[in-house]
Description:
- By secondary structure, this protein is an alpha/beta fold.
- The protein has 13 helices and 14 strands.
- The protein has two domains: about 10-140 and about 315-330, Rossmann fold, CATH 3.40.50.720; about 145-305 and about 335-380, 2-Layer Sandwich (Dihydrodipicolinate Reductase, domain 2).
- The chain has helices at about 20-30, 45-55, 70-75, 90-100, 115-125, 145-155, 185-190, 195, 200-210, 295-300, 310-325, 330-350, 365, and strands at about 10-15, 35-40, 60-65, 80-85, 105, 135-140, 165-175, 215-220, 230-240, 245-250, 250-265, 265-275, 280-285, 355.
- The strands form two sheets. It has an eight-stranded mixed sheet. A six-stranded parallel sheet has the order 3-2-1-4-5-6, sandwiched between helices.
- Helix 1 packs across helix 11 and helix 4 packs parallel to helix 5 (about 115-125).
- The longest helix is centred in the C-terminal third of the chain and has 20 residues, at about 330-350.
- It is globular.
Amino acid sequence: xxxxxxPRVRIAVVGTGGITxxxxxxxxxxxxxxxxxxxxxxxxxxxxxxxxxxxRAADAGAATGYTDLDAMLEAERPDLxxxxxPPGLHRAQAVAALRAGAWVWCEKPLCLSLAEFDEITAxxxxxxxxxxxxxxxxxxxxxxxxxxxxxxxxxxxxELGAPRVAHCQTTWYRDTTYYEVPWRGRWVTEGxxxxxxxxxxxxxxxxxxxxxxxxxxxMAGRLVxxxxxxxxxxxxxxxASGAVATVVNSVISPDEVSRIRIDCDDATVELTHLYGHRxxxxxxxPRPGLDDPARVAxxxxxxxxxxxxxxxxxxxxxxxxxxxxxxPGSGADARRxxxxxxxxxxxxxxxxxxxxxxxxxxDPFHAAMHGDHADWAPGxxxx
Length: 383
């Protein structure tokens, strides 16, 4: 007996700027058999109109336009809300959507502090329906390429041997024009510098591959840009497995690259790319003296090449919604990455190591990534 085809997931987007048009719209269009855009919210009517035209052209749905989030939630009652606004708006918009019973898929960072994350968690719990959500997940598309899925499986199975040493690098370049956008470079609207706005994707992937971290030591600097937050940060990290890693985040590096390297007992696995990866961007190098061709052959990336992308992650979000289970990149899974960033800032600004679980309510770094530190709190960049 044939099972009925489930209805398409009704999606609304909040914020119709570059990231939503370039990444989320194609993702929804690629899953048109399972999802449709029914609404779009933006305070700029011209931008909203342009997005609506693009939605129709992409056959992704017929999105009704709104300039007010609450009005859209009341009128449309969407199943899933995609948030693509500046980071300072994420917490309030995610909470509003959850209270309306909608799932949330939000651009990084999901929110600006652990305190805000706990507010989102409370909103999830208050709106819970028989263990089927709603849930708030963060965009973490680098986890979803076939190369990343393959690498994680190899590491988890012990196929490469125990991980020992790792390097996570996001060294990009942003000029002064980039920071002329009013919300960039400010704690209250962006939540931090490259640690929060750029390197968070690679950091999240590193944690996805290696698991829980236990201790961080760090340094940060405001070396070039006249901004409140850092423009470069470095960290030394210890993982629960005993592995140690370096993390470098920068927006002052002319030769731009995103890289992860993990040295295991029997092999090194490396990923080198910029804004997204394919299978060809992953490389496996056996340790000297390892003579096991059949084993090395198993390390090769799979024949199917699924690029890391919003499209790949949306597939997982839609599946979780239709099955009524918590999606990856939400709950404790998402909080771990945010806590890592809070700990990196605390270690860098206080000059001492920070352990996992240390930052709790009452700690200034729980309330804000700058921790109200005298040298880093809002306004101190002008000194």
